[in-house]
């Protein structure tokens, strides 16, 4: 992306903000961005039309007019007020639309990012602001990937949820000892097509991540337990202890036993 990673300053945010009374927002000219995720039914006035909202998000730019209201009680939403330093290029590169509703049925990116930002609000450590900014950058990246109506669309974008889930499993459950063909079959793709999409999306091959997930698990077990090497190999997804030992030595420069001893010094 030409614009690079966005630099944001979060002024205030609210996670699962509950309104027991009717909410009506009518404002314009605010000098910062306003992001809203409508968890419950709402209505917005956009381009002279009343637009129903439910599980949509909208990013209002600085100086824009904002008219929306709750359409049910209780009403719940999430929101972030922030400024952007060089962040405009980042948002544009991601294809994030302004003052336009985008459907997001699964709120998990909102849950992860805004809850984390809210928990960090008010803390004074020097690293807090950069960390909060990174959460917001990740949120917009996820929204670009998960919202099919925005951004520059590729096949990888269309399969992003499945690819992301597969990648998580490669690192969280390497003992499954899965193959590229088995992973591809789960989402109805050929092995070669899955490998192409995966490399496009994450910049590494799926085979490299399979190996890295297995080695990371093996290193953890070697460093933190007395589990026999044969059992470490099996728990890390290897069906052949000899293959595990050859691959471990080739990629780490040490045998499993040498690695274990190095962690005990």
From TrEMBL:
<dbReference type="InterPro" id="IPR020449">
    <property type="entry name" value="Tscrpt_reg_AraC-type_HTH"/>
</dbReference>
<feature type="domain" description="HTH araC/xylS-type">
    <location>
        <begin position="164"/>
        <end position="262"/>
    </location>
</feature>
<dbReference type="InterPro" id="IPR018062">
    <property type="entry name" value="HTH_AraC-typ_CS"/>
</dbReference>
<dbReference type="Pfam" id="PF12833">
    <property type="entry name" value="HTH_18"/>
</dbReference>
<keyword id="KW-0238">DNA-binding</keyword>
<keyword id="KW-0804">Transcription</keyword>
<keyword id="KW-0805">Transcription regulation</keyword>
<dbReference type="InterPro" id="IPR050204">
    <property type="entry name" value="AraC_XylS_family_regulators"/>
</dbReference>
<keyword id="KW-0010">Activator</keyword>
<dbReference type="InterPro" id="IPR018060">
    <property type="entry name" value="HTH_AraC"/>
</dbReference>
<dbReference type="InterPro" id="IPR009057">
    <property type="entry name" value="Homeodomain-like_sf"/>
</dbReference>
<dbReference type="GO" id="GO:0003700">
    <property type="term" value="F:DNA-binding transcription factor activity"/>
</dbReference>
<dbReference type="InterPro" id="IPR037923">
    <property type="entry name" value="HTH-like"/>
</dbReference>
<dbReference type="GO" id="GO:0043565">
    <property type="term" value="F:sequence-specific DNA binding"/>
</dbReference>
<protein>
    <submittedName>
        <fullName>Helix-turn-helix transcriptional regulator</fullName>
    </submittedName>
</protein>
């Amino acid at each position: 992306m030409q614009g690079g990673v966005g630099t944001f300053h979060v002024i205030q945010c609210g996670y699962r903000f509950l309104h027991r009374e009717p909410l009506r927002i009518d404002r314009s000219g605010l000098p910062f961005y306003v992001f809203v995720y409508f968890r419950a039914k709402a209505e917005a006035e956009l381009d002279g039309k009343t637009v129903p909202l439910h599980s949509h998000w909208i990013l209002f730019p600085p100086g824009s007019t904002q008219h929306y209201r709750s359409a049910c009680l209780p009403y719940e939403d999430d929101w972030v007020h922030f400024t952007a330093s060089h962040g405009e290029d980042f948002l544009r590169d991601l294809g994030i639309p302004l003052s336009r509703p985008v459907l997001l049925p699964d709120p998990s990116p909102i849950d992860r990012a805004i809850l984390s930002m809210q928990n960090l609000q008010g803390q004074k450590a020097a690293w807090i602001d950069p960390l909060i900014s990174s959460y917001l950058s990740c949120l917009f990246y996820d929204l670009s990937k998960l919202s099919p109506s925005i951004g520059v669309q590729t096949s990888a974008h269309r399969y992003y949820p499945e690819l992301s889930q597969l990648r998580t499993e490669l690192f969280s459950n390497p003992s499954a000892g899965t193959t590229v063909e088995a992973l591809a079959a789960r989402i109805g793709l050929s092995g070669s097509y899955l490998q192409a999409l995966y490399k496009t999306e994450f910049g590494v091959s799926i085979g490299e991540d399979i190996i890295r997930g297995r080695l990371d698990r093996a290193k953890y077990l070697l460093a933190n337990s007395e589990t026999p090497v044969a059992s470490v190999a099996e728990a890390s997804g290897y069906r052949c202890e000899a293959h595990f030992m050859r691959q471990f030595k080739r990629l780490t420069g040490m045998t499993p036993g040498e690695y274990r001893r190095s962690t005990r010094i």
